[in-house]
What we know:
Elements: E1 10-15, H1 20-36, E2 41-46, H2 47-51, H3 53-57, E3 62-66, H4 74-80, E4 102-106, E5 108-109, H5 120-124, E6 128-129, H6 132-144, E7 149-153, E8 161-162, E9 165-166, H7 167-177, E10 182-185, E11 187-188, H8 195-199, E12 209-212, H9 219-225, H10 231-244, E13 249-256, H11 263-276, E14 280-285, H12 303-326, E15 332-341, E16 344-348, E17 354-357, E18 367-376, E19 379-384
Amino acid sequence: MVTSIDDADIYILNTCTVTHIADRKSRHLLRMAHRKNPDTLLVATGCYAQRESQELAKIDGVRFTFGNKDKASILRVLADHGFIDQPVHAHPVESHNGFRTRAMIKIQDGCSNFCTYCIVPLVRGGEKSRTVQEVVDSVNERVAAGYREIVLTGVRIGSYYSNGVDLCGLLERILGETSVERLRLSSLQPGEISTRLIALWQNERLCPHFHLCLQSGSDQILRMMGRRYSTADFEQTVSSIRQKLPDVAITTDVMVGFPGESDEHFEESYRFCRRMGFSRMHVFSYSPRNDTEASRYLGQVGDSVKKERADRMLKLAKDESLAFMRRFLGRTVQVLFERISRRLWTGLTPNYIRVYVDSKSDIANCLRTVKLVSPYRDGVWGEVIK
């Protein structure tokens, strides 16, 4: 063990390649590590390494690149080459590490949708799900280690299916066979939301927060993207959720500047997002990915237009997020506190509102009843109810 990250002998970077910005960040981090410690061994893995291993191998200091299929062999290969001692055993954290209160548990990987802009199916492959027992055991391990909230993650968790058990069945098993206090889901597709799924949220341990990928509020652009729903489908899904869960947070992803997106298409998307009243929006510009259908489309949108559209959508996202949070001012809610931020404690409500409080006590990984008082930074200011 070393006391400073700059003194490490080996750096392993798990790269992303979903956009050109992700590629750039990966290259930057590898070069920065080499500058800080020229003698260190650099290992690149993940999706960028899967797609462009030779490109990453040209970076000074990068000795090994491993695609997604070879991740499990990283430690063995390093041991075989004498960089680490044998035997090597990788294991999950066995106790609460003092820095995180939420544990991410991957339940599946891969996607077979092949949206026209997306590189993920080419670097991750088709859907693969872990067994129900593996997931349940992982949840129990994290709970025993002190984690109070579990987030189920994957590339497309709505496609989860293992030995006849779908996502609904998996959630039922987790709720019935573990004592996890909070259970949250990552991204879902609109078509993956069913009446049966929504009904599970009668159990208050499931956080009232759905992240539904929109991508565009224009039906024509959705068809060009290869998305398998319309804006009407999306709106009906949101309405069904809100009817059962009035205080739910609906968050989303929105892309601007897709090839062929005209000013009118963008305005359609903008108006639709405003009508939906999302509590948070992740806004990003289209990034051409080689080997995807959309990279060959005519009508590529210029960078300046993308930036202008992204700025407008980001302003809407900020306004809608503030409007959502204002609905809860004056209420008392349960907050799971995570860390200190500028001498203030910060944590999340079940419906994903960030809360800041001033507390002299150490409340990391503690659930506290908090009164929401006023907007503050990217969330709200709260007062702990003793």
